[in-house]
Each structure stands twice: as structure tokens, then as C-alpha cells.
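User: Fold this; C-alpha cells only.

Assistant: Input:
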Amino acid sequence: MPKAVRGTATIADLMSTKDKAELVNGYVVTQPPNGYWHARLASRIVMSLDRHIEVLGVGETFTGLLAYALDEPLESGRQSFSPDASYYAFNLSKTLLGPVPGPPTFAVEIRTSEELSSAGDAEYEAKRKDYFYAGTLVVWDVDPRAKTVTKYAAADPLTPVVFAAGSVADSEPAVPGWTLALDALFA
């Protein structure tokens, strides 16, 4: 059986990319710009998280332009993440110029219209497995069309919790005490 071809790109190559991108199988995989609704949802999540983190007093919140880099590629070949919104449970040095070392504690992936398909489901499932294998505690899968948030937790990744209109989503145990009303998120 032929061996899979792997690219030679590194974290340094990823960081020199001008677009949002991730490092997978030695290749810098760029992502298209987000549309209005996608960006608005990410902003609402980050603003709410940031207000909570200010009170909590620990950790950092980030938009989708940040790279989280792993020291070594995972078995899948992934070596970085760039979620649409995220929380990192540790305080970082204010002099850090490169990617955040390690995985996010909490990651939010907002589906684009192209990702709302069975092919998108398989891609998201594989990426969630990578998040959990790397050490992420909770991943939200946000579906703007259905106006739902599906919470996957590393402790029980096969039992998602779906939050819909009228409900309040949480990210326990990743972000203690933080919740977000879906009616406010999708207003």
C-alpha cells in the first residue's frame, strides 16, 4: 500500500499566512472569509465570553483569527486549530507573539452554508475528535440555519446536548458558570 504524501509546511509557515488557516498533514489549509451572519455570531459569543472571563479572572477569549499550535501533529495530521471563537483557561504572557501553545479549552465552530451537509458533518466530527484528543474540554457546533448550538464534551463525546430557541447554552466544565441565551445569540 502506498504511503500517504505529507506536506512540509510548519507552524512558522502557518503563521506567515495572511488568511485564516490551519496546519493539517503538513499543509497550510486556508479558510474563506466569513459572511455577515457567521461573523456576527462569533462576535456575540466572544463578547459574552469576554465579559464573563473578566469576572472569572482567569483565561483568555479569542476570535477566529488566532492559531492554537500543537508541538507535534496528531495522528490525523492536524497540528493547529483556529476555531471561530474560543477560550483558553490559562493566562498568557502579554509578550507572546506567536500562536497559543496547545489546544483551546473551549472551542466554537460555526457552520458555513457549505458545511451544513453530511460531508460537513463528517468533517466536523473528525475535527471534534482532534480537539478532544489534543485536550479541549468542550466544543460547540453552531448551526446558524437551524439556530441551534450542539455541545460536545470530551467526557462524553457521543452524547451531545442540543440547545435550541428559548434555551440557555452552557460550556461546562470548560468555562465555569458561563451561559448564553440562544434567543440573544440568534436575535
